[in-house]
Description:
The complex is a heterodimer. Helix content of chain A is about 15%, strand content about 45%. Chain A is mainly beta. Chain A has one domain: Thiol:disulfide interchange protein DsbD, N-terminal domain (Immunoglobulin-like, Sandwich), CATH 2.60.40.1250. In chain A, a hairpin with a 2-residue loop joins β7 (about 105-110) and β8. Chain B is built from 4 helices and 9 strands; from the N terminus they run αβββββαβαβββα. In chain B, β1 and β2 form a beta hairpin. The interface between A and B is large, with 38 and 46 residues.
Amino acid sequence: MIARKTGMFIALAAALTLSFALAQAQQPLIEGPAHSSAKPAAVVFLYPEQITVPAGKPTTIALHFRIAPGLHINSHTPREEFLIPAVLAIPDGTGARLDSATYPPGADFTLPLDPKTKLSVYTGEFIIQARIVASPGEHMVEAKLRYQACDNNACMPPRTITAAIDVIGK
Amino acid sequence: MKRNTLVISSVLLILAAFAWAGWANWEYRKQAAERLLASSAQAELVPATGDSDSPLQFLPAILGKPAPGFTLEDLNGRKVSLAGYKGKALVINFWATWCAPCKLETPWLIELRNQYAAQGFEVLGVSADDIDRGDPQKLSDEKRAIARFVQETHIPYPVLIDADSISRPYGGLDDLPTSFFVDRDGTVIAAQVGLTSKDEIERNIKKAMGIVK
Lengths: 170, 213
C-alpha cells in the first residue's frame, strides 16, 4: 500500500515537474517584435474608456489623444498631397459606426532646415470629435487612428493605433 | 499491483514523449531565434564625439562590413541588384514620399550625384512607401504615386521600391531618411539617419570615394 502511494506520488511529482519544464520551454525566446528598437508609440489614446449613448441616435464623443514630446503628426488636412493625414475609423461590425469625425485644425510647423515650407500638424494633446451611432447593448469598439509621425529631422512609417472604448447603447 | 505499475509506466511514457516534443520544439525555436539575431542588424545612436551634448551619430551593426546584398525592382519593374554597382561608390538612400525631411534632402543628393557621377559615384534611392503586391491595381497606383514624386523632384538616379523587404539587414529603418555610404569595395563606411546637412553627406560621399579618409 505504501509502495503504491509512493509510486503515485513520484508519478505526480514527475508530471508536475515536466509540466513546469514544458511551460517554460514555450516562453518566447525573443521578446516583442523581432529585434525592434522598441520605440514607444508616437501617439497614445487617452480617454474615454467607457461611454453611454442613446441607442440608434447619432452622438458626438470627444476622443482624446496625446503625441509624444518632440514629435508631431500630420493633421487631417496636410498641406502637401504626399503627406499622410491623421484619419479615424471604426471597423464594421463592432456595434457602433462612425457617422462623421471632426478633426482639430492643424498648427503651422516648419522644419528648422526649411523655414519656408509650412506643414499642418498636431502636437501634444488633440481631440477628435467622433459622431457615432451605437446599436442597443454593450460593445467593445476598437476605433482606429492612422497617423504618420516625425520629429524635426526624421519621420517614422505610418502607424495605426487602437482606441478601445466600451460603448453602451441604451 | 500490476495494473498500477502499468498505468504509472504509461503515464511516465506519455510524459516523456511530451518532454521530448517540448525539448525538440524549444531547440528548434532557439535555433530560429539565433538565425534571426544573426540576420538582424542592430543599430544604435551614440554621441558623435563621446560628449553627451554632441549630436547623435547613427552606428549600424553593418558599419565596416559588406553592404547587405539585395535585388529590388525599379519603377519600371526592372530588377536592380546591389552587386551590379560593384566598383562604384554608393549612397543607398532610404526615403518615402510621405517623409518631409526626405524631400528636403533629395535636392542635395541630386546635386552631389551630378557632381561626382563622373568619378564613379551613384545614388540608389530605395522607397519605403507601402506597396501591396497582393493587389495589382493598388500596386500600380502606389508605383504611380512614387513615380510622380520622382518626376516632380527630378530624381535622376535609380529609384527602387519595397525597402521593407530589405529593412532587417539594414537595421530596421525605423526612421527616414536613412543613408548608407558604401565604398568601391562594397563596404559600408558611414551611415546617417535623419536629416543632417549637405556638407555632412558630401563628406561621407568623399570618404566612400576614397577622396578623404
